[in-house]
What we know:
Elements: E1 2-3, H1 17-30, H2 37-44, H3 58-79, H4 85-95, H5 98-108, E2 115-116, H6 127-144, H7 147-167, H8 174-186, E3 191-198, E4 205-212, E5 215-216, E6 220-222, H9 225-240
Parallel strand pairs: 1-2
Antiparallel strand pairs: 3-4, 4-5, 4-6
Amino acid sequence: xxxxxxxHTLANGQLSLDQADIxxxxxxxxxxxxxxxxxxxSALTHASSANHKLQSSERLEFLGDxxxxxxxxxxxFHRFPSVMEGELTKIKSVVVSxxxxxxxxxxxxxxxxxxxxxxxxxxxxxxxxxGDVFEAIVAAMFLDSDWPTARDFVLKHVKREVEQxxxxxxxxxxxxxxxxxxxxxxxxxxxxxxxxxxxxxxxxFFRVFVQLGERTFAAAAGRNKKQAQQRAASNALAELAGxxxxxxxxxxxxxxxxxxxx
Length: 262
């Protein structure tokens, strides 16, 4: 976390060396180069470090919250054609929550790029601020470029969060969704095949893939057969929707989030 003097620029209108370094580091972390770096500077500047709130991230947070919600809603609408509005709303509320946005900020390493006031110099960055900065960066990127660029950035980081939110929902069932989809569009039932079962009894590892007729889909790993099948079904649904499979067959399922439905 950077503790800097308030304001965006020096007296001559130029960025300080510290600010320039922060912007360069942040752009490398998010994989995007800003044409207008003042947008990124605003996104990273907490109100405690700004001469005026209009120079802080607050307005960008407002816009970014709506943009994030729109991207997630569009993705959920197309990704889960058999899921009703109520369940989609529950999934969306998890994915666009401050907790999830804070998690994404941590994963990107944005905590080291925040510009805060002296009063926060020795304090841990609250999750709320970390969540806000992710939203602000989404908005800044949108204003600096266009909707597709901002959407692709969001999707790159939230797709896995969507899959985890669905996987840990008691009411969601990838196998049921795939069964419905396969019957409706292909008049077929999915077939699940076990590729591998390994590991000691207390730490089993299962790899499963799905087949629809002659077509096979990316395999997935699970802590038990049920989880492996659910994840394999999710991979199949993603591929049928033209998306990349969210689960890897080589991923250790024992290091992923717990699934209360398993």
